[in-house]
Input
Amino acid sequence: MLTIKNLSFSYGSIQTLNSVDMEMETGQVTCILGRNGVGKTTLLKNIMGILNPLPGSSIQMDGIQLISMAPHRRAKAGLGYVPQGRQIFPRITVEENLKVALQGRRDGSRIIPEYVYELFPVLKEMGARMGGDLSGGQQQQLAIARALCGDPEILVLDEPTEGIQPNIIQQIGEILRKLVEEHGMTVVLVEQYLDFVKEFGHNFYVMNRGRVVAEGETSELSDDIISKHLSV
Output
């Protein structure tokens, strides 16, 4: 379980997270929703240690406090990150992209897990191609596969469906479902695509102006919540 309590963050004098409390249940997909600019990506970067929150904030993974941990230590603790915009390495091969993430494995293995290729067979076929030669959807699959190579317990994704064709979006959703149901993984997902959230998510939090303004199970994601907090 990932537990966030009283998480606050500011860029200089501009406070972008205000006393955020969340619980991401083990073996479930928790979706973080909200309009652009409400602090969703900032929240994920605080979870991963890329940004440092204000004093008094708490981020715990299975009871272990992460606040003082550097990003690489959080990866070793079992956090995997798929950033917005994918950020794969375009000038090295697909296989080399995947091998980069092996450095963060807790078991010391330097072998790409076979289940990663089972989830993403296209990446095995394209192992010798440069990352930059892949389509947008293939690069997103590579970004997710790369994170999985680090053997995470919790997978954190920032808008994985952004700019992706519908058939790949569905594939990504089915892969997340397999990771939860077959591997017991916990998934934390920032997502704007509501149909995707309703189909593949278990729980949701809605953010506005750096605060949590609604939460519940995705089956409770009502038209009133959507119109009040999510409609453009």
